[in-house]
Amino acid sequence: MTDPTVVIIGSFLLAFKAILIEGSEVAILSLATIKQLGRNNILFGVIAGGLGSIITFLVVWRIFLLLPAIVIDFATAIVLFYFSSRFLRGFVKYRIRHKSFREKMARIGKEVIDKDLKREGTTDPAQPIRFSVPNSLPVLTITLTEGFEASLVLAAAGAFNIQWTLIGAAVSIIVLIAVSAVSYDYLMRVPRWLLDVIAGVVLLTFGLIFFTSGIFAILTGAT
């Protein structure tokens, strides 16, 4: 059985990192496009996507709780291994291959704006985009996508300790809101590769811990 202290630390860190990494992309995109898309379109897309992500988290979390303890260990390990590999690939992409995270977000932001301009029947980015649910869909879709990925990690962590998972998620959201309220540039100053490698190592470490716990439980049961 995994040590309770390890579970508490793991639940907090996994939730914190999942929200920080996935949420930062939503925050960066929202701040970069808010002038063109309008505050209402951005807020509706982020709030609706966030609510959808919360529902996803609750459903997946409840499914995790229905599983036997050994299965939870292995299922959690698999989820953490998968996302660890994604973040470590991000480290390789942005640090070793020298891809630009700023350029990636600029490209995504342009695509989001172009979709709404096309929907409005104009190509003038200076023209205000009116509020409507369809005009909020690009931001909503991206928020749901990032939120779904974060929800899987949160659900896996929450299966062990829901209290510290929620605390980790709340602290991360507060940090994101605080930084976003100050400046868009602050979100871009921390190298993306650094966030990716830290997240990748954290997820890999706890994935190995939960995987080992599952193996140990099998061996103990076999004896």
Q: What would you say this structure looks like, in words?
A:
The protein is mainly α. It has one domain. It contains eight helices and no strands. The radius of gyration is 19 Å and the shape is elongated. The mean pLDDT is 89.
Can you give the mean pLDDT? 89
State the share of residues found in helices, binned by percent: over 70%
> What overall geometry do the principal axes of the alpha carbons give?
elongated
**H and E order:** HHHHHHHH
Quick one: how many beta strands?
0
Report the biggest beta sheet as strand number plus sense, adding barrel if it closes. Answer: none
Structural class: mainly alpha
Percent in strands: under 5%
Work out the helix count.
8
Low-confidence stretches: none
Tell me the span between the first and last alpha carbons: 15 Å
What's the number of structural domains?
A: 1
Radius of gyration: 19 Å
How would you summarize the topology of this molecule?
Elements: H1 4-37, H2 39-66, H3 69-96, H4 101-120, H5 133-158, H6 162-182, H7 184-189, H8 192-222
Helix pairs in contact: 1-2, 1-4, 1-5, 1-6, 1-8, 2-5, 3-5, 3-8, 4-5, 5-6
Q: What's the quick description here?
A:
The protein is elongated. It starts with a helix and ends with a helix.
List keywords for this structure.
single chain; 223 residues; mainly alpha; 8 helices
